[in-house]
């Protein structure tokens, strides 16, 4: 993995808690395939969606910490 300073150490099998990965791409894909959006307003992310992301993100962080950074996704369902 790289950032603006060069290579960054990233532990193998470390959890990726990035909201873009677990929320945005799934939401966009769902919206694109569920109905034909014709305006930018149709694709708007609402404040309620951000609240859901925030609550989900906090829950994932707590689960990750409880599992000492190991796999925890199975605990979320």
UniProtKB/TrEMBL annotation:
Which Gene3D superfamilies does the entry link to?
Ribonuclease H-like superfamily/Ribonuclease H (3.30.420.10)
Which organism is the protein's source? Exocentrus adspersus
Q: Which domain of life is it from?
A: Eukaryota
Which PANTHER family does the protein's record reference?
A: HTH PSQ-TYPE DOMAIN-CONTAINING PROTEIN, TRANSPOSABLE ELEMENT TC3 TRANSPOSASE-LIKE PROTEIN
Q: What name goes with this protein?
A: Uncharacterized protein
Molecular function, one GO term: nucleic acid binding
